[in-house]
Write a structure and sequence with these properties.
This is Glycosyltransferase RgtA/B/C/D-like domain-containing protein. The chain is mostly helical. It contains 20 helices and 2 strands. Helix 1 packs across helix 5. The N terminus is likely disordered.
Length: about 425
């Protein structure tokens, strides 16, 4: 049910969408004027110049996404790089062809001069519509994350959260190294913001709504489908398994085991069917992330080694993961610091949402540490939940104008730093 702070009518939704859209365009558009890369070795892709002092990087991974969206049958070819994420490619097809037809219509009408098209790199000219389509997907995913964050903000603060705090926290979601490097290009990194927020929403719904608890099997299938869009949606499975355990823990172990096995099977069903379709075509399923980067599968391979070798590799990977934590360091320090201070100052008001947030943060930490492929942009998935921790803490502080100024100035300073600093580009 929508809270009073949120509102539930269509005009309210349109205002929120318009406000979030304006924030996205202003924040990400300002990145066009960030310092350009000095050498080609500092990024993977093509730097597209919009003017003498403006431009952005088209990521090198984008060309494969666009070509596959243009020809989805490529997914059925052996060793296809994006074969493990077929539904994201099909989403690109769904939005890419209408965008291509629109571009062609503008060209025929003379509204898109040929000189503009000729300024694009040759390989991007026939794919412009698909490029635009994927950027629209970026916008849709980021917009969904902002709207969901807003809902969770008021929900976790019992409708007492202040608007200026929400506005400041949204700036951190829209202005950061992920949106700077990936919003205006073809990639999947906008899911960095949506996945953890969606997991928290599902967890809260399962805890509070009997109707949602009755839909666990359907949620398992839906989660399995989303995992074919973006791999991190696999974290939905432990959330569903935990809720099933919580419901069935008073029953016999056999009943619980059957229930958990059913959910695992339903979650895996979309991937099993996709692999089966490939086999019918005589194609072996290829997971580029596992094959090229050893994501998660390194655990199975290294476990077969002698214990000293396994411990050495595990320690090495853990060290590499810890080196990515500075990407979320400011958020982690402030969230933990304010939470600890609040518990000392007002111990009776340690709110109930924090355990759920803490559990999901721990789940993400374990997943990232075990992944075997470590990048700061992956570790940034911790930030949306850390911002919600800050929201809960700030909502319990006395309403003072100085606090509002501090949060607002921190958000503005953060954005200016993101715009002015050099990189990242990919």
């Amino acid at each position: 049910m929508a809270t009073k702070a949120e509102g539930g009518n269509w005009s309210g939704w349109l205002r929120r969408i318009a406000a979030c859209t304006l924030l996205i365009l202003v924040a990400t558009g300002s990145f066009w004027f960030s310092p350009a890369p000095l050498t080609d070795d500092e990024y993977c892709g093509t730097y597209l110049h919009l003017g003498p002092h403006a431009g952005f990087t088209a990521n090198c991974d984008g060309f494969v996404y666009m070509e596959d969206a243009r020809h989805p049958a490529h997914l059925l070819e052996p060793g296809e790089v994006r074969q493990s994420r077929p539904l994201f490619i099909l989403l690109g097809t769904v939005v890419g062809y209408p965008a291509t037809w629109a571009v062609q219509g503008l060209q025929r009408a003379g509204l898109l001069p040929e000189q503009v098209m000729q300024k694009l790199p040759g390989k991007y000219q026939p794919l412009l519509g698909f490029y635009i389509g994927y950027v629209l997907l970026n916008y849709a995913v980021l917009l969904a994350a902002l709207l969901l964050f807003r809902h969770l903000y008021y929900r976790l603060t019992s409708g007492q959260g202040r608007r200026w705090v929400l506005a400041a926290l949204l700036v951190f979601l829209v202005s950061n190294q992920i949106t700077k490097a990936f919003f205006w290009t073809v990639h999947q990194q906008m899911f960095t913001f949506l996945v953890p927020l969606l997991l928290l929403y599902v967890l809260l719904q399962l805890r509070e709504s009997p109707q949602w608890r009755a839909r666990l099997p359907g949620l398992a299938v839906l989660g399995g489908l989303l995992a074919l869009v973006y791999g991190s949606f696999v974290l939905g499975l432990p959330v569903l398994l935990y809720e099933a355990w919580r419901q069935q823990k008073a029953k016999s172990g056999a009943v619980l085991a059957v229930r958990l096995a059913l959910l695992i099977g339903l979650f895996a069903l979309p991937t099993i069917l996709w692999i089966g379709l490939l086999k019918l075509r005589g194609v072996a399923y290829y997971n580029h992330e596992a094959e090229a980067y050893g994501q998660l599968v390194w655990l199975r391979a290294s476990w077969q080694q002698p214990l000293p070798a396994f411990l050495k590799l595990a320690t090495h990977n853990l060290r590499r993961f810890l080196q990515t934590l500075p990407a979320v360091g400011p958020f982690l320090v402030v969230a933990l610091g304010l939470t600890g201070w609040l518990r000392v100052q007002r111990p009776t008001q340690s709110g109930h949402p924090l355990p759920q947030l803490g559990a999901l943060l721990l789940l993400q930490l374990v997943f990232l540490a075990l992944l075997g492929y470590y990048k700061e942009r992956l570790t940034f998935t911790l930030v949306p939940l850390l911002l919600l921790v800050l929201a809960i803490v700030l909502a319990r502080l006395p309403a003072q104008r100085s606090t509002g100024w501090a949060v607002g100035m921190a958000a503005l300073g953060w954005h200016l730093w993101q715009v002015l600093r050099y990189g990242p580009f990919s």
